[in-house]
Write a structure and sequence with these properties.
The structure holds 3 protein chains of 3 kinds. By secondary structure, chain A is an all-alpha fold. Helices cover 70% and strands 2% of the residues of chain A. Chain B is of the alpha/beta class. In chain B, strands 6-7-8-3-9-10 form a 6-stranded mixed sheet, with helices on both faces. Chain B has a 4-stranded antiparallel sheet with strand order 2-1-4-5, with helices on one face. The chains are: A mainly alpha, B alpha/beta, C mainly alpha.
């Protein structure tokens, strides 16, 4: 219960694991562009092949990488059907009441579903090969240039790192409070919604009060050490890319270019 | 036998990479009105044991029986358990949430089926048991009270159901000496009135002075189980486990090292003083001028 | 409140957007009905102001997806928009609406923020995320019908939390009453 939740990160030594997290993040963003630009069967084939390569490079078992898709079957089905059956087209294949099945609708539905599926799997591969700490560090590096247009990147980074630090602490505290209130008679798993809703107040209020208390103490400690919240000017972007990181990003860009221009 | 554990075991997160056995094959019987102390390292399973008895977690193996009923059986009504048993967690003031002290205490009686008048009466009794004046405190906001007052309210919450069994997990953590004394006096009064007390504590002095029986847990197993005097006699074993030993016992050992035939089955101050009286009756002490040592001699 | 304190409160609220859904999923059916992720974000906006509310609404779901996989990737963009608007609007409204009654301020800010968030998220879904397949019917169902109990619960819960925090002196009172010093007797039973 008091383990730090590491999401879906699975430690490993594959090529993808060893890539600089920022490179992976940039790669994912470029992939996003490539996916949105995909519109032909060739385009999708390229993307699917690429995902296959990614999967091989990540050392993840196939089943695990496909896992997020299993949860979204229903969602995909709904989207597909909504597109297929409601797309207003000049030349429907079949109509009945408010439904109009059209070829364009079917293609549209397939497009949306395929794109979502690819992005979801790619994102999942990224998350499985990059620990949450690395991902947030990569985000911070990515957003660093924003400080030049007055967005307080440093404060955001502080918020993120403190939040991550608090997650296991608060998770354990929620559990303790739940137990304490259960002994007092709160019914969290009663069949009646009314009972469960009434049990929310004794759970949620102490959780927030105690969480805010910790925030208060932490803020006090920081201010006592002289921290006032000014962001620091950072000297320059940290680039610690190695050859393979540049290579990865370049390949990604190349695929995207091919996607947009050719396919 | 009100509390019986038969080969109770508990494993955290079974089947995952984080699997960890917290308790193994615990056999335990606790009679009405006992005052039990539980000692052990962090991770030895003390809190897990308390939570098993409180019915907060289900044993992976074995049974937990209270008043002859298996509390994890499908047809067991948990409300019955909630009426009989209260638990005070570490830093219990964290559980306060209501707008007034009276409502806070009444929450514990919500599902008791008692009429309003009786609820009020119990709230009054519980508040007075912790030293508050009912009329002055009842409409105050529990969250706005001082730390010590909050803790008293939290303790009153546990007492308001007038439980037969009271479980305490490090209850004196963070209390100043006076607060500790007041708290332990409340607990002792309850025990004398017939409530079974089971207290987990790191503080060997507290356990030595108040508990009649001590359980020592180590790595999920029940290592020692016996009267406080007997458990503390084996001081080497406790120290080998790096557990605390009560001061009277340590003093007794020191006296023995000085050559005085002092009894070694000492747990609390009362026993220590009684032993001192006994021993000094049997012979006198003299002072060796050249070595400066006090020597006991008949 | 200083920036440092607001930042720490935001951090804690972000952590709670990750932790609360985990806790609620232990209770059957609570997650989709009670919408636990909305609570810390709205609270953050109400208490710390719009920049922090916005930050909480953006960072929270992202971290939650990273750590627990909820909300799933597919639902994430719409949730981000929705929660960001919640935090933003809750903060904006609390700074504009001053009725001299904390309850009223809170209710107004909450209702407007919740409505605004749903409208903007609905538009985002219709135009960007699920273009072509999103309809009024889908919007009303997913954002209002199924979550009606959740909305009701939040409207009850959030002011209670704010009041509890004020009483615990963890956040400054919105409309401070004058403190009256009188020789009030102590609390214990001894006279």
């Amino acid at each position: 219960m008091s383990r730090i939740p590491a999401g879906m990160y699975i430690p490993g030594k594959s090529f993808l694991h060893r890539l600089d997290p920022l490179a992976k993040l940039i790669g994912l963003i470029i992939l996003l562009a490539a996916v949105i630009a995909a519109s032909s069967p060739g385009g999708y084939l390229l993307l699917i092949l690429f995902i296959g390569v990614l999967l091989a490079l990540s050392g993840l078992p196939f089943k695990l990488a496909i896992a997020p898709l299993r949860r979204t079957y229903l969602f995909f089905a709904v989207i597909f059907l909504m597109n297929a059956l409601f797309f207003a087209d000049v030349d429907p294949l079949w109509t009945w009441w408010i439904f109009s099945l059209s070829r364009t609708g079917l293609i549209q539905g397939a497009n949306v579903v395929l794109r979502l599926a690819i992005i979801i799997v790619a994102g999942h591969i990224l998350i499985s090969t990059t620990s949450p700490m690395e991902i947030t560090a990569a985000f911070r590096r990515l957003l660093k240039p924003l400080q030049y247009i007055n967005i307080p990147v440093d404060i955001v980074a502080l918020i993120v790192s403190v939040a991550i630090h608090f997650i296991p602490v608060l998770a354990e505290e929620v559990e303790m409070i739940r137990k304490a209130q259960t002994v007092r008679g709160a019914r969290f798993d009663s069949a009646r919604l009314r009972d469960r809703a009434a049990s929310l107040l004794p759970l949620v209020i102490p959780v927030f009060v105690n969480a805010f208390k910790r925030a208060d103490e932490l803020a006090l400690a920081m201010e006592a050490r002289g921290y006032r919240g000014e962001g620091r000017r950072v000297s320059g972007p940290e680039i610690a890319f190695q050859a393979r990181d540049f290579g990865a990003v370049l390949i990604m860009a190349a695929i995207c270019a091919v996607q947009i221009l050719v396919l | 036998m009100p509390i019986v554990l038969e080969k109770a075991s508990y494993t955290y997160a079974p089947g995952t990479p984080y699997e960890a056995a917290a308790l193994c094959d615990i056999d335990l019987q606790i009679a009405d009105g006992e005052f039990i102390g539980i000692m052990g390292h962090t991770g030895s399973g003390k809190s897990t044991l308390l939570q098993l008895i409180a019915g907060l977690i289900t044993p992976s193996r074995g049974k937990v029986m209270i008043d002859g009923c298996d509390i994890n059986a499908r047809n067991y009504n948990r409300d019955v358990l909630r009426k009989k048993l209260s638990m005070i967690f570490q830093y219990p003031e964290y559980q306060l949430f209501e707008t007034t002290v009276e409502k806070e205490l009444a929450f514990s009686l919500k599902h008791s089926g008692l009429p309003g008048k009786e609820v009020k009466e119990r709230v009054r009794r519980a508040l007075e048991a912790v030293g508050f004046s009912y009329t002055r405190v009842r409409s105050l906001s529990p969250l706005g009270l001082s730390g010590g007052e909050k803790r008293k309210v939290a303790i009153a919450c546990a007492l308001v159901t007038e439980p037969k069994i009271l479980l305490l997990d490090e209850p004196v953590a963070g209390l100043d000496p006076r607060g500790r004394k007041e708290f332990l006096e409340i607990i002792t009064r309850r025990n004398k009135a017939g409530t079974t007390i089971i207290m987990v504590s790191h503080d060997a002095d507290v356990l030595g002075n108040y508990a009649q029986r001590i359980l020592v847990l180590n790595q999920g197993k029940l290592l020692l189980d016996g009267p406080a005097k007997r458990v503390f006699t084996d001081i080497e074993k406790l120290e080998a486990l790096k557990l605390g030993v009560c001061r009277p016992r340590k003093l007794a050992r020191r006296l023995k090292e000085c050559g005085i035939p002092f009894p070694q089955d000492i747990a609390g101050y009362d026993e220590f003083i009684a032993a001192v009286v006994e021993v000094s009756k049997k012979g006198g002490m003299s002072h060796e001028p050249d070595t400066g040592r006090h020597v006991y001699s008949r | 409140m200083t920036i440092v304190k607001r930042s720490m409160i935001t951090a804690v609220c972000v952590a709670l957007t990750v932790v609360l859904p985990m806790a609620f999923h232990a209770v059957p059916n609570a997650g989709s009905v009670i919408l636990p992720m909305h609570i810390p974000v709205l609270l953050c906006g109400l208490i710390c102001g719009w920049p922090f509310g916005l930050a909480c609404g953006l960072i929270g779901p992202l971290l939650s997806n990273l750590f627990t996989g909820m909300p799933p990737m597919a639902a994430l963009p719409a949730m981000l928009v929705e929660l960001a608007v919640y935090g933003l609007m809750a903060g904006l409204l609390m700074s504009c609406v001053r009725t001299r009654k904390v309850y009223a301020d809170l209710y107004i800010s909450l209702l407007v923020a919740m409505l605004a968030g749903r409208i903007v998220a609905g538009m985002a879904r219709a135009l960007i995320f699920a273009a072509g397949s999103y309809s009024m019917a889908a919007w009303t169902t997913s954002y209002f019908v199924t979550s009606l109990p959740g909305i009701a619960i939040q409207i009850v819960l959030l002011p209670s939390i704010v009041f509890a925090l004020e009483r615990a002196r963890l956040i400054p009172a919105r409309y401070p009453k004058e403190i009256v010093l009188d020789g009030s007797p102590g609390l214990d039973s001894s006279e």
